[in-house]
Design brief:
The protein has 350 residues and is an alpha+beta fold. It folds into 2 domains: 228 residues, 3-Layer(aba) Sandwich (Rossmann fold); 113 residues, Beta Barrel (OB fold (Dihydrolipoamide Acetyltransferase, E2P)). Helix content is 24%, strand content 35%. A 6-stranded mixed sheet has the order 6-7-8-3-9-10, with helices on both faces. Helix 3 packs across helix 4. The protein is elongated.
Length: 350
């Protein structure tokens, strides 16, 4: 499959800071790709490089198999929506949508039809004559989306598109973006530092750290099968314990000798990763089949349908997530036993 966007060995430095370090990534037709990572990891720089707002020091970017070297942003078949939306305050919504089209030379009936079509796509026709200061946050976002879509780009680039919205509007707009992408049939590339947004919206996620791609895959792949400690720690909550392989099926770590499937030789330093929802809580004195570990509940955080338990085992605190109603109520200070299947333990490079 030929990618819509191909990023090939792109490096970008700002003085002594390496913002992008040899990044290579293929982005395909109609996919919703999220660039995920902490602040300063290079994800926005990568998006800006695709848009033509940053020039790579080395490497190349191709769109529809055509090199973008030397092309200005307005010459590229992509459009970028900024976190601030960047709407012109003195123009109406329709005027904002029409601006880029006028720069391309459109006039008259063709211009009016393209503006109407773009507004209809995001259900903003009734707001065409309003100015940005009279719009809600969600309406401003849809106006900015309409302006991008009016130019019929091959890909839409979105920089933290939900950051300025409150929780309820963010969840609703997230669903709207997913529906819009499916309806329009174009590629979306979104930058976010929010793992829940990435998991909820994206068909694929590219996790970045310090200018490098750590892992690319579906949300399920990254959540259940992280390749390294950084991805495991960033993508969802994870219990991570440094340890050393004792035998082919045992790792000695902070919580003791843990059964784990690994072919690494004895003495290899590793990290063990166990998702909190894969750990089962039992009352003290229970003898589960595997993963037996005694502890004391140090804290409980109620979360509606689930509760998060922090269990103290010596100096280590283990996070456990359990559905409320799945067992007897457990309280702070109560002695418990933890268990988990061997399949829940992932052995990662230290």
């Amino acid at each position: 499959m030929t990618p819509v966007i191909r990023i090939d060995g792109v490096t970008k430095r700002f003085g002594d800071v390496v913002a992008l370090d040899g990044v290579s990534l293929d982005i395909f037709e109609n996919e919703f790709l999220a660039l995920l990572g902490p602040s300063g990891c290079g994800k926005t720089t990568l998006l800006r490089a695709v848009a033509g707002l940053e020039t790579p020091d080395t490497g190349h970017i191709f769109i529809d198999n055509r090199s973008q070297d030397g092309l200005a942003p307005y010459e590229r078949p992509v459009n970028m929506m900024f976190q601030s939306y960047a709407l012109f305050p003195h123009m109406t919504v329709a005027g904002n949508v029409a601006f880029g089209l006028k720069q391309d030379g459109l006039r008259g009936a063709e211009l009016a039809e393209r503006v109407r079509e773009a507004l209809a796509r995001v259900e903003m026709e009734s707001f065409a004559d309003r100015k940005p200061q009279h719009l809600s946050g969600g309406q401003k976002q849809r106006a900015a989306l309409a302006r991008c879509l009016a130019k019929r780009p091959r890909a839409l680039l979105l920089d933290e598109p939900l950051a300025a919205l409150d929780k309820h509007l963010r969840e609703r707009t997230q669903l709207e973006l997913m529906t819009l992408r499916e309806r329009l049939g174009i590629t979306f590339v979104v930058v976010t530092h929010d793992q829940d947004e990435a998991m909820g919206m994206a068909s694929r996620v590219a996790v970045m750290e310090k200018g490098r791609l750590l892992q690319v895959g579906s949300p399920r792949d990254l959540y259940e099968r992280p390749d390294n400690r950084a991805v495991a720690g960033f993508f969802g909550h994870m219990n991570l314990w440094d340890g050393t392989v004792s035998t082919g099926d045992t790792v000695t770590c902070a919580v003791g000798a843990v059964s784990a499937a690994t072919s690494l030789p004895a003495g290899t330093p590793v990290a063990l990763a166990v998702r909190p929802e894969q750990i089962v809580l039992h009352a003290a004195g229970a003898t589960p089949d595997s993963g037996q570990l005694a502890g004391t509940i140090a804290d409980v955080v109620y979360g509606g349908t689930v509760s998060t338990y922090f269990v103290a085992h010596g100096a280590t605190r283990i996070r456990v997530v359990r559905q409320n109603g799945a067992g007897p109520a457990l309280e702070r200070g109560q002695a418990v036993v933890l268990s988990w299947p061997v399949s829940a333990v992932r052995v990662l490079p230290s």
